[in-house]
Amino acid sequence: MPKRKAGEDDGDYTTDWLVISKQYRAKQGFKCEFCSVDLSNHTRLLHTHHKNGVKTDNHYSNLQALCIDCHKKQPSHGKMFVRHEDMQLITRLRQEQKKDNQGLGWDNIFNIADTGVHGVLHLCRSKNRPPPIVGYAIQDANGIVVAQLELAWPSTKFGVAISVNDLEIARSNGWKAFSMMEALEALDRR
Ligand SMILES: [Zn+2]
Ligand SMILES: [Zn+2]
Q1: Which of helix, strand or coil describes residue 16?
Q2: What is the pLDDT of residue 110?
Q3: From the CB of residue 142, how many other CB atoms can be counted at a distance below 10 Å?
Q4: Quick one: which ligand is closest to 47's CA?
Q5: Which ligand lies nearest the alpha carbon of 72?
Q6: How far does the centroid of ligand 2 lie from the alpha carbon of residue 52, in Å?
Q7: How far is the CA of 17 from the centre of ligand 1 (A)?
């Protein structure tokens, strides 16, 4: 039986879990298997997920290395807490590494985008528009992230955001920023 120290909350895991998890993530090159973000320099933001939900089933076929953002989007993981700073860091790394991600197919785009914007994605694809960048951080002159777009086409400065605050800031930074509903209407007219 696994021994547990008082106050520890990892009773569901096997005692060798930390070692297995680290070895597995190393084997994946510390990249998220969903969105491909490379977290070699931020390994704490990369989790090892049990696909079947059984935390003692550590066969590699049951494991998946996921960044905390993609991990949170797995079924019954909605309560997982992701700090805003960590989310911003992941967004920034995805952008910095996007040279590798360029040419992401529509299927991958759907995987990493919030389900709330899938309607817009479907319409864009049906209208043969180029795939957007998912999760685009708008930065001010000092490189501070001031707003976040769910979807962005930087060449035309067209973007879709969910929060009203992000929309306002994006617009004041020269973006044609649309809410989900506005984007659907605008695309439909073209
Ligand atoms: Zn990810
Ligand atoms: Zn998980």
Answers
A1: coil
A2: 87
A3: 6
A4: 2
A5: 2
A6: 9
A7: 21
Q: Where are the domains of the chain?
A: 1-81, 103-189
- Mean pLDDT (whole number) for 41-57: 95
Distance 126 CA to ligand 2 centre (A): 33
Q: What is the DSSP string of 88-149?
A: HHHHHHHHHTHHHHTT--HHHHHHHS-GGGHHHHHHHHHTTPPPPEEEEEEE-TTS-EEEEE
Q: Which ligand is nearest to the CA of 75?
A: 2
Span from the CA of 7 to the centroid of ligand 2 (angstroms): 21
Residue-wise pLDDT for 114-155, tens only, equals: 888 899 999 999 998 888 988 888 887 777 778 888 899 988
By C-alpha distance, which of 113, 46, 109 is closest to 82?
Answer: 46
Q: For 51-96, where are the E strands, in sequence order? A: 63-67
